[in-house]
Structure formats: C-alpha cells, structure tokens
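User: Can you write out an input/output pair for a complex, sequences first and structure second?

Assistant: Here is one pair. Inputs:
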Amino acid sequence: MDYFDEANNRSIFRKVAEKCYLPANALMLGLLNTYPDFRISYSISGVFLDQCRTYGPDVLESFQRLADTGKVEFLAETYYHSLSSLASPEEYCQQVKKHVQTIEELFGQTPSVFRNTELIYSNHIAHLARLMGFTGILAEGVDGLLAGRSPNHPFVPPKFRIPAEQETIIRRNRPPIRRSQNIHVLLKNYRLSDDVAFRFSDRSWNGYPLNAETFTDWVQRSGGHSVNLFMDYETFGEHQWADTGIFEFLATLSRIWQERGIRCETPSEVIRRWRKQKNEETYDVHAPISWADRERDLSAWKGNAIQNASFTSLYELETAVKALGDPAVLELWRKLQISDHLYYMCTKYWSDGDVHKYFSPYESPYEAYRRFSHAMHDLRYRLTNHE
Amino acid sequence: MFGWEYPPLHLGGLGVACRGLVRGLLKLDIKITLALPHAGSTDEGVSFLSPTETTFHSIKIASRLTPYDSEDDYAWRVHKLPADVRDIYGEDLGQSIEYFTASAVEMTKNTAPDIIHCHDWMTYDAGIRAKAFHRRPLVAHIHATELDRTNFRPNMWIYDRERRGFAAADRIIAVSNYTKGILVRHYGVPAEKVSVVHNGNAEDFCNLPDSVRWSVPRRKLPMVLFLGRLAIQKGIHQFLAMAAEVHRIRPDVEFVIAGSGSMVGELVEKSIALGLERCVIFAGKVDSNEAKTLYAQADCFVMPSLSEPFGLVALEAASYGTPVILSRQSGAGEVLNHAFKVDFWDTHKMADCVLTILRDDHLAHQLRSEIRNDLASLTWANQAGIVKSIYERTLSNNLTA
C-alpha cells in the first residue's frame, strides 16, 4: 500500500512539464548553443528525478541534453527534499550520497557544490557539507546577517569542529567525492532574484514592466565578484506564465549579457575564480536560515504544534525503519520526509490567503495534518506489527 | 429598526444577533428605535416600541402559518414554550405578523428615521410599509432563509414574503457569503445588492481567559458535543451516523446531544438501533450556563448542519477553545479558519476528523489555542462598524439616486 496520490501527482507533473520544464529547457538549450558565455546550474531533487522517470521521460531527456552541452552544472541536495539536516546526520548524509550517485548516473557529472532543501543553512550545516567533501554551499543572503555587506562574493563559515561522533557518521556515509579542506558560501542576491521570480508580472510594482535592459543595469550596478541569482525553475512558465513575456525576457537577457560582456558562471566556476583572492569574510549563521517567507527561518515547516509533532514523530521512526531492512518501507518513510508535507501544515498568515495556500493541494493545514498523521500511524503500525 | 425577538425573550440566534448589533451600533452613536411585536425587553439607550391596543386598527387575520419545519413541529414548540415566550410567537404566528405589520406605521410615525432596518421575513412587510411612509431607505437583514429552515422545501407564502422584502430593500445584509449565495441563486437577488456582515461573538463569550476551560469538572470519558435544535436542518441524523462510526473504533467516546425538538423520540430510537444506547446522552434543552459547561468539557464540537446561514453555536464552542468540526454548508466556516470543515453528508470524513482530534493531542492543542485568534476581530463592535458604513453608503446612494 502507498500513501501517495499517483493520479494527482501525474497530472500536476504533466501540467507543469507542458507549461514550464519542456519549454524552459528548450529555450535554455537554444541560449546555451547561441551564446558562448551563457551558463546555468540546476538543483533538482531525487524525488523530482523519480517523477521524471515515471511521468516524464521527455523531461528527463531534455535535462540530459542540457547536461551534454558541458555548460550546465548540477548541484547536490538531499534526495528526498527533506529536512534531515535538522534531524539526523546519518540520514542526511545517506540522502545526499544517494542524490550524488543519481546525478552521476543520469548526467555524467559529480556535484561539488551543495544546496540544502529550501536553502536551509547554518554554520553547522556548512561544516557538515564541508566534511561530506563539497567546495561550496548555497545560502540566502539575509540582510541582518550580512550587516551591510554585499552578498556578491563568496563567504566562509566561522571555523569550528563539529562533535567527533558526527564526524564519524559522516565519514561512514559521505558521498564518494573528493574531500575539500575549505568550503565557500554563495549567497543568493534575493533582491535581484525576486525581481524576476516574484515581481516580474506584478502590476503594482514600480519596476513593472521589467525589461532585460533595466535588469541588466541593476545587475551591473550591484557589482562585486558575482551576482548570485537563484530561483524556482517554475518561475519560467508556471509562476510567471508564458504570456507575461518571461521567456522573451530570459532570451533578451542572455543576448544583452553577451553583448555587454557579462559572463555567466556556474557555482563551482565562481568559487574556483574566487580562490585566487585571499581576503575571506565570514558569514556567521547560528540559528538556521532559509529562503522562505519574510522571516527567512524554519517557521514555514516547523512553526506550529502540528508541524513540530509531525517532524518529531517522523524522525523517531528512523531506527525502527532502518532496523527492519525493508526497502519498500524505507522508501515510504523517506518520501514522508519531503518538506512539502510540513509546508502544507503551515498556519502562518494563512488566514490572509498567501503563497502557502497557492502551493497546497489541501483546503487547510489541518486537512494536510490529518492525512499525514494517518500515514504516520499506518507506518508506525507496520513497524510494530512486523514479524 | 424592526426586530422579532430580543433577549431575554428569544428562542434562537436571531435575538442574540439582534442585541449584539444594536449594542454595537449604540456605541457608534447611532440612535435606535427598536420595534418588537411584544413589550417587555429593555436595554439601556434603546427606545423600544411595540403594538398596543391603541395602535391596533382593523386587521384581517391571515391563514395559519407554519414557519418552522412542519406544522406539527411548530405547534409542538409553541406548546413547550414558557408562557411569556409563547406570547412572542403566539399560537398563530400569522396573526402576530399581521398585527405587527399593520402597526408598523402607527408605531413609528413620530420617529423620523434616517434608515429603516428589518430582520428576517417576519418584519419585512413592516419595513416595507415604514419605508413607504417615511420615504427612507430600507435595509433588509437576513439571518436565515426559509430554504435553510425547510431543507429547500419552502412554504411558498413565506418564501414570497422574503422575496418581496429583498426586492423592496435598498440594501440587503446577509450573515455569510453562504447565505448571499442562496439569495443570488434561489431568490434572484443581484449579488451587488447584498453585503455580507458576519455575526459577532456574543459579549459574554468574548475574551474568555484560558483557564475557563479548566474551571469546569472534567469528564471521565472523551466527549463529542452537538448543540442545537433537534431538527433535520441541524444535521442531527448525520451526527448519529458519525457517532456510530466513531463508536466502532473508540467505544469509550460519549456523545452529548443538547437541544430539544419534536424529533427526539425518533432520534432515541435511531441511536438504539445503531447500538449507541450507552454512549449517546440526550441532554434536552440546556440553559446558557449548562451550555457553557458542555462547551468547556467537550473534546470536540460538531456542527453538521445541512444548511446553516451562520451558526453562532460554533463561535460559542470556539470561544471555549473547543476544537470544532463544521459543515461546509455553513456561514461560520467562513470565519473559523482553525477548524475542520466537511460536507454535511460526508459522515465518514466527519468521524475521521473526530478520531484524529481525539487521537492527537498536538492537533487538539493547536486547534484549541489558535481558533480563539479567529474570534479576536469578530466582535459586535467591529461588525456594527461595518453595518454603519453600509448605512452611510446606502444614504449617499439614496441622495444621488
């Protein structure tokens, strides 16, 4: 028995594939072939790639064709788009390892830069990524933490050692990539990223309508080592529909950048070029941050009692699930870790009808909890009544 | 303002809502003359009027009316009422209404109103007459339609009076979007003529301290509460079907059914047939203190109404921090976010929601604490402010028209 709505998943996947993945990938391929300095990198979860294999081999193939250009970088992340970094170092490493292996298998490259689920980041998470072997990690450029500094160059986390038993766990479970002594943090420039991702078609925004020339001016004025633009891929065709002109915007943008000599780089290229510099600045993040909502914290997933109870009861099962050794049960448990399940239970400014509502298949957070809680109880029942 | 009931002489939500609105408007310095079919209500700052022998001219008696579910039900209810309340509705409601309507102009001829506001169909004809006499705009407030009360099998005589009131009104105030939808779909009222003003929470339910829940004696067993008239409209059959399903999985759960109605015998038999004789408790009609104790004791309050224009009881239960499961066919669902909403016919899901709340403390706890935030802005002071702005707009439209 499964807990997931196959029919609904398929139809949503196909809808977004037609509106976004297929046309956007076709456009990207054209741009990569036309403009020598154009680059792009993707952070694609393992569960999405699973869905591609089941519902959209055409989508998977279009990503593979992009990989073949040699100008596209794939980042590592947790296979199950999970919050495991906050719960269990062992599970976290295993999911990253599984993801790295899948990227190698599908796209023929080994990721060297890591992006945690929903850009969740802390000093601790940075050091876990360093120990796993990554040379870079992405994070949100939060104003309060930057304290007036520009996000447009790589930073380093403060130096410290994580507990020895965690180091041992990582050594045992880390993905097979070359170890790195240092790790750099690339900060998302959220103002410029969100101009495209959120505000592009907003008629009440004073930047509307945004044209590629203006945006390029802003990027150039922003200056620094690199301007890190990071956004949902669904920005292209789904959040911003084709009729907003988002695809034309992207095409014009790459042409103007080529003309003005603005070079695109992938995250690992940005870090490699930076290594020649020596002045390092510290990005010090004690409490985890993310790219979600105004708060930029974990409250979208762990902000109320039902979310926290779900999170705790989920990871309480880790030992039992792994002791059972049944791959089907392990897969079910891992799919329940997909952070969206918790996101749908968010009640933060929910009454005002915000983005959480837009992305949820449920009519209310309580409905989301009821379904999730049933799956959890069923899973727990299976674990206790095995043998 | 023409009303039909006003506490302490009232039967249902209409009187409570009417008082809440009147008191809210008074605080906004609006002068109110309230015409009621009976004398005996008092409230500081309001002038009360009611028909007297001297205002009574010559009135033809209309045919007998059946304003509630059935003639039997009405007669049964009137029979059960205390004598003073029985006088509000009378042995013959039609007669009372004719009398009230005929007195409308005579009663109010010295009031010089800016606006005329009437509540539900019993007062609409009075409102129409007053409008013609005073030449002032008419606001028709709708708390419950005939379709809600009769499960969409209306008494046409009442339905026609409602329609006439809606047509004559310059502005209509509906207690929910749900009710507005009924007016638009089933009464042919243009949507732009209707404003929605949700009911406020009654004063004695506002801002209760957290401790109120724990100030009542706890019950030994988990308890699920129904509170309302025992009528088809209130979804009492659905409540029993839900109870049977919960009982199969959680035999320790008690179901308290508070309220009265002519269906009680039939419901007792049905609960026995479902094997629920040990866990369903028919509490009969409860007074407001008993109701408050039940709200505080309940682990879960279920309002499965087939068609509920608003549903004040859900707000009352919520005030006590009781987790609420509401019919989607209700107005209260529009203002209570931290609650489960199900279609009234989906008793399976209703049972599942009850079971989930009983099983998961974290969920119950969150529903308890959050639902009271939903109520924070839902006071009569706020809602009266909305009504006041509707008055102002209606008056200015009336000037330009």
